[in-house]
């Protein structure tokens, strides 16, 4: 799957999004979709991504891991430490996540998508989805990564 994702699109960032309260996999994916729509407005262009909801080892709490595209021009981390509970800020992608703690790192194409997602795909992944990518049926062998659509 990591190889397939690596060939699917050019990625800009690897993200981990946690929650400040208990959520279901469905709820986590709801917030991921909502946040990606918010990011599109902030980016002023379509944003696409892969997001997977994972159950954590300690207590089984759900958190998200993802790859994002069309966000390279955005500030990943502003360098500031915010007080606990200050979420949804517009200063950077780390502080933009409205539900808890976030980590955002530049995607390294030399490592490839498999480096970023393989350890999560093999764990107890509750759910995963693609956002803002082609709506036509795709296979890992036929997609060239150029036909992006705006998903509202």
Note the topology.
Layout lengths: L1 H7 L4 E5 L7 H19 L4 E8 L6 E8 L23 H4 L5 E5 L6 H9 L3 E7 L21
Antiparallel strand pairs: 1-3, 1-4, 2-3, 2-5
Helix pairs in contact: 1-4
Largest sheet: 5 strands, antiparallel
Which H/E pattern describes the elements? HEHEEHEHE
Number of strands: 5
- Helix content class: 25-40%
Which runs of at least 5 residues are low in confidence (pLDDT < 50)? 135-152
The SS-based structural class is alpha+beta
**Shape label:** globular
Give an overview in words:
By secondary structure, this protein is an alpha+beta fold. Strand 2 (about 50-55) and strand 3 (about 60-70) form a beta hairpin. A 5-stranded antiparallel beta sheet has the order 4-1-3-2-5, with helices on both faces. The protein contains 4 helices and 5 strands. The protein has helices at about 1-10, 25-45, 95, 115-120, and strands at about 15, 50-55, 60-70, 100-105, 125-130. It is globular and about 40 Å long.
């Amino acid at each position: 799957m990591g190889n397939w994702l690596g060939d699917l699109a050019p990625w800009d960032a690897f993200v981990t999004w946690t929650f400040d309260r208990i959520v279901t996999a469905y709820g986590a994916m709801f917030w991921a979709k909502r946040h990606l729509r918010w990011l599109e407005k902030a980016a002023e262009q379509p944003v696409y991504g892969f997001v997977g909801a994972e159950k954590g080892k300690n207590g089984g709490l759900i958190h998200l891991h993802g790859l994002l595209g069309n966000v390279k021009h955005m500030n990943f981390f502003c360098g500031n430490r915010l007080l606990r509970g200050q979420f949804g800020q517009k200063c950077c992608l780390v502080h933009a996540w409205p539900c808890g703690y976030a980590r955002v790192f530049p995607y390294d194409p030399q490592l490839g998508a498999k480096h970023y997602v393989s350890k999560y795909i093999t764990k107890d992944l509750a759910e995963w989805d693609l956002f803002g990518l082609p709506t036509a049926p795709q296979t890992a062998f036929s997609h060239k990564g150029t036909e992006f659509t705006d998903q509202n």
